[in-house]
Model the fold of this input.
Amino acid sequence: MKDKELELQQRIHRLISDPSKVFTTVSGKRLQFLSPGFINREKGPDFRDVAILLNGSIIICDCEFHKNASEWLEHKHSNDDEYNRVGVHIVFNNDIPINQNFETLIIEPELLPTNEPTDGEIEINEFLDTLDELQNYALLRLLRKTSEAKLLLERMPIENAFEFSLRNFLNKYRSRKRRPVYKEEILEEVIQTLKNSEMLYILYDIAKQADFNVPERFYKLTKTRIDKEGKNLRLEILLNCVLPLALALTNEEQRISLFVWFWSTPALNSYGVLTRKFKQIPQNFIWQQQGMLEILYQFDKKTKISNSNFLKIGEVLNFFHIGAPPFP
Done:
């Protein structure tokens, strides 16, 4: 691959590495790149195993870039099995329509970020080769918890699922070294209050498909004390209990909004254990912290992230797909 082509490929990869950006495809669908996958320097599409959110469905697929859409035909990709999993065709110029089962995304060349040096190529540890992989772990953690929430909701009503999830999380919370330390009676009081609070009401509204601004309401929850919980504990409850249940209950439009909140919400502070274990990784956003926590979780299980992790989730969540288009 020529140096200029490689540089352009890297700049596009950097552009799709921001999970908070929302694009619109040529067909009018809303598109987010939840994880940019990895740059492919061998035969085949430019980017492999990219996780996208397309109109509320999460899909792991490949992406190909051309300056002009017509290059897809010139390079005869339609006849090459290596390109069967392409879900997004990224172009500067959509000069001709391509009759393929993928989405076309037009981007402006001047919007591409520069190729400034980053720590993305630093080997973090045996489970994380580049910083881009962190998004995969953050997504895996969120979907894993959402699949657990979905199974809960199949067995019990929303209020019971919320209380079960809340108690399960706080039992684990108690067993770890945390600051501040909450007395058991305080946590029980928090449970009793939260299970009849705005946290439950937002789940009811999502289940009813009520029309409201999801990110704004979640943001207010992070800022408003409900009982004696601190802001850090409140955010952790939102992430570990409310958000997974909400994603399991929601429709496509609200699901997009929930992901926008997850990928764009700043972290309240840094976790000491994460700072010690991942010195090169910033903790600016909650998704970065969630990704690091999932790495530690997988490390304890002696596993490395792969499509098999996601396949199990796909058996539970009907909005998650792996493989070739056409997509739902």
The chain has two domains: 3-116, 133-311.
